[in-house]
Amino acid sequence: MDDEEDGFPEWEDRIKANVAGEVRRRRKEMGWSAQELADQCERLGHPIPRNVIANMESGRRASLPLVDVMVLAAALKTYPGSLIFPVGYVDQTQELPFQDLVPTWDALRRFTGEQDVPGHDAGLVPDFEAHADLVSTALAAIEEEERARFTAEAAASPAQQEEAEGRRAKYADQGLSAKYNLRYLRRDLRDNGATPPDLPPALADVDPPEDDTHTTSEERL
Description:
The chain is mainly α. The chain contains ten helices and two strands, in the order ααααααββαααα. It folds into two domains: 3-112, 434 Repressor (Amino-terminal Domain) (Orthogonal Bundle), CATH 1.10.260; 125-220, no CATH class.
């Protein structure tokens, strides 16, 4: 069975060609020789000899380990997905064997999870994205509350003070709500056996003390 009938070698060769072409393009864009790229890979802790890079770029390398793609991307100051699916430099590509060619932009978005694929499990990525949004909301509310408090204290008239106090109370409520939701999201993550992301110092009160089990969440925040 030849490559056209089998499908697998054709797909593998296409992906390797994507990576090889983008590595060569990016390397030349940075003004590096293959040896300079090899030196940078070694500095990152995963040596890839110059001759291996040259063989890859010329299509003579039989395999392309994932760890090499990761280190090459870091050395070239780009992302692994951008080497595999070089948007703007390869119009169409194949995502998997036996599949039709698709726009490289669509393939990259599915590869990174930016575009949903029916039936695919995104794992905890949506939860971590929600966590990041809540952290941003809480920090912004804390900052705005402090700014409104300062404005209220420096107000030149009762009307200005009242307006500033109203804004301070609004942001205080927003911050409390975001921290409340953060606490429950982090609890759910732990209940599922996952480790929540680290919190910034300003939100250190989101996680309750381990022995604090007799008060409500609102009382502990």
